[in-house]
Amino acid sequence: MDWSERIGRRIRLRDLHILLAVVQRRSMARAAEQLAISKPVISKAITDIEHVLGVRLLERDRHGAETTAYGAALVKRAVAVFDELREGVKDIEFLLDPAAGDVRIGCNPILATSFVSAIVDRLSRRFPRIVFHVVARQAEALHRELLERNVDLLIARRLGALEDERLDFELLFEDREVVAAGAKNPWVRRRRIELSELMNEPWVLSPPDNVVGAVATKAFRASGLDRPCTTVVSDSPDVRMSLLATGRFLSIFPASALRFVARRQEVRVLPVELGLAGLPVGIFTLKNRSLRPVARLVIKQAHEVAKPLTTKM
Fold it and tell me: pTM, whole model, 2 decimals?
């Protein structure tokens, strides 16, 4: 297809915007309502693009509208087009006021309450007009958020769904799992502890079917043990940290999480060797996507915060 004659002059951003609305709402009628325009206008915009490209973009029936293979290919690129335009406008805003702007950071709940919070705290002191959107999700959801361009970057462990060739990865530090207890727990007075000695203690662990819980299970198995009977099962790091602070419970956390939590003095790392290799934690970005200056500020600050963690924790 000739770009100048058939595409560059004839496909309008407005028509692409209408196409995206139809795809997102899965209905021309619902898209018309969302955009406050008539259904014939919607239909004409789609027909015009199909005519220019010479392919059918949508399959329409009484149940709604779904993309064809051609439509899906165009929508994928259209999302990138509007994302780059949106980022371009934000770049201009940043140039007008380098100390302001907004940034969307994806991370898991444990990093959100520790390492990422430390980054936000330091940057917000220097740039009080930057707005930080911290999106705390598990790996699969974070992967989707980045691919759909709903976040600027991820700070996460490199495993599971995040092993994706469409993403760039920049290492920050190697994290390791540790056994943690409250400062009042009797076990904190011991200089050396075998994991087998703790099997009958009250444990608070993440569910075994999520990434964090699976790592804990792997730690027990590395010592030739089954996962212990768990008193409390919760994927909330705040719940687990609160129960540790009582002095009764034990849990397994990434070592980095205990370096930055607000209640750090209430928690201790027990001298238990888990026999697990460290897991890489770093910054994920979408390949071929331009990063705005405010996102680059976050990345620079992340490396500063990570420096103490590059030594043995």
Answer: 0.71
